[in-house]
Amino acid sequence: GPLQLRNLVAYAIGVDPLEATATDLPSLEAPTDSSFTLVWLRSKSATGIRTSLLATPSLTAPDWQPPVVLSESTTALGDRELVRTSIELPATPAYFIRLHVEPAAND
Q1: Which parts of the chain fold into alpha helices (H)?
Q2: DSSP character for 65?
Q3: How do residues 65-81 score in pLDDT, each as one tens digit?
Q4: pLDDT tens for residues 19-33?
Q5: Which residue, 41, 58, 83, 105, is the most exposed by fewest CB within 10 angstroms?
Q6: Which strands sit side by side in the sheet containing 69-77, from one edge to the other?
Q7: What 3-state DSSP class applies to 10?
Q8: pLDDT score of 71
């Protein structure tokens, strides 16, 4: 598709990878001095996957770790939900965040 969205990510956010638009992707709300909010979609029907947020202060030697989540809320949107995750903004010159999707481990 035009966004070159990976199939597993498209499945997790509940979109067709060939028809996804920029509005389907995670977005940031204006940060405060100490936090920011990531807004993203999650499919209610996606099974067999695990989603998480990962962050790093540098892309030159990336060490992706879970960020400090201050709060999270969801709003139903049909077969998807809108997730608002408030994240602590660390005292670093830069901070990168991504939505990580992987197959769920078989228990």
Answers
A1: 7-13
A2: B
A3: 999 999 999 999 999 99
A4: 888 999 999 998 888
A5: 105
A6: 27-28, 35-43, 80-88, 69-77
A7: helix
A8: 96
Q: What is the C-alpha separation between 65 and 95, in angstroms, rounded?
A: 11
Residue 105: which pLDDT band, with cuts at 50, 70 and 90?
Answer: confident
Among candidate residues 16, 31, 24, the one with its CA nearest the CA of residue 99 = 24
The total of other beta-carbon atoms located within 10 Å of residue 32's CB is: 10
Number of H helices, E strands in the chain: 1, 6
**H/E run at residue 89:** none
For 11, 12, 96, the CA distances from 17, given in Å and listed in that order, are: 8, 11, 23
- As a whole number of angstroms, the longest Cα–Cα distance in the chain is 41
3-state secondary structure of 22: helix
Q: List all residues 6 or more positions away from 43 whose beta carbon is below 8 Å from its beta carbon.
A: 11, 12, 13, 14, 79, 80
pLDDT of residue 107 exceeding 70: no
